[in-house]
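re: ur question from earlier - yeah i can do the single chain one, its not a big deal. heres the input i used so u can compare w yours
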Amino acid sequence: MSKKRPHNKKGFMIIARKKGQYIVIGNQIIVAISDINYRTKQAVLAIRAPREIAIVRCEELDNIDQEPLDAISKAKTGEKPISD
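and the output i got, formated as tokens:
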């Protein structure tokens, strides 16, 4: 019997990790928690992925109202997001 993965309202899987722990996405992407600053409430991520996979911080995208996965897909292809 498999456990149901917790998701939030936007469909993102919720995973708790501690410093030094990591997750594996598919068989090519590793995301590790490199450091956690409890004062600023920021986690530092270390990401290992093939060069052809775009890794984009959402705040760097042109249109912040866009769904993140759609925006990342467009950033990977070089397509500019369409503003309303």
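The CA atoms of residues 57 and 71 lie 10 Å apart. not sure if urs matches, ping me
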